[in-house]
Write a structure and sequence with these properties.
This protein has 11 helices and 10 strands. The chain is of the alpha/beta class. The protein is elongated and about 60 Å long.
Amino acid sequence: MAEADFAYSLAVDAAGLPLAVSIFADDRVLLDQMQDDVAQAGLTVRESGDLAQLLAGDVRALGELVLVDCPNPDAAAMAVLARLDSRAGNSGARLILSTNIEALDAVFACCCQSSPQILVNPLRAERVIALGRVLADIPNLRVRELSEEDRLTLLRLTEQVGHIAERLDRLDSASGWGQNAGGGAFRFESPKEGYRTENDLIRKPRPPLPDARLVRQIIAQRKARAKFFDDYLFADPAWDMLLDLTAARVEHQRVSVTSLCIASGVPATTALRWIGQMIEAGLFERVEDDADRRRAFIDLSDKAADAMARYFEEIGQGALMAA
């Protein structure tokens, strides 16, 4: 099959609106639903069709925003997604890709240039939220710049809306109603270069990271709460992922994006949003697999490892068991 080529054109009017959108999905009901949601968001659907149209080898002009539902991508589809990611990265187009948990690692690995939103078995509400995040990120549409605290508040709010949507979906499924459409306190900001506290004019050497067995025990204790309380009551994906990656770093183990999503204790789509925020904040790093370009891993950055080591030293191992 000839390699698909894509030529993006930024179709906007004099006011910078509306965005042109391309939609590809094999599920006809889902395709119609996505078109309706795009229209409700005030965007223009340039074209829509099944994945075969996206996989066709002819040159095509796509919109500034491309939505693709690829729950079970084969090798040919993965190659086209990689090409799509490259073109989007170069042109500034936005991608929203939906898939399933089994294909997540492969989809994540082939999308390294465009920072797409990846949704895992999303509800309709989660797709709408993804569209809203695109609109909030477009300079011409933004009312004001979002501060770090604003972005994290929006992320928390997004999670809450997702939780509500999931609960409503469960209620609808149980009762037969409807159709199943298938400024936090934690600031992700590293001290700036040259930063010194009054008592830290000479920075101490980094202490060693704690024993991985201790960190794994803390993780197990945190997960045990779910036996007695609602999972969402204690949801703290950023911290749970930091703990998991800290243990993995000590064990010299690589962590896949799917494994890290599971460790987060929240739905995969929510976990992916947090992973993106943590990468942007310089706490996580994406590491390509040199032996297999279809895989990518997540690791702590050196700054995050330094912070975790100092945290564990600060609170002392006696207090760690209560973490």
